[in-house]
Amino acid sequence: xxxxxxxxxxxxxxxxxxxxxxxxxxxxxxxxxxxxxxxxxxxxxxxxxxxxxxxxxxxxxxxxxxxxx
Length: 69
Fold this sequence. Notes:
Layout: H1 2-8, H2 10-38, H3 42-67
Helix pairs in contact: 2-3
């Protein structure tokens, strides 16, 4: 327990993981909507790729902020 409290700061880790899972779930829902509406057409694929790119960019910002904390 001492190792967890000293090195990992459990409250920050729990908040960070919860936010990450929420962000990934939101990205999945936003990306799935145009895919179901337009199918695997150019419009649907482009919308899914834009959503995935923005989702990965958001995750990288969150990861970068965690390292510089």
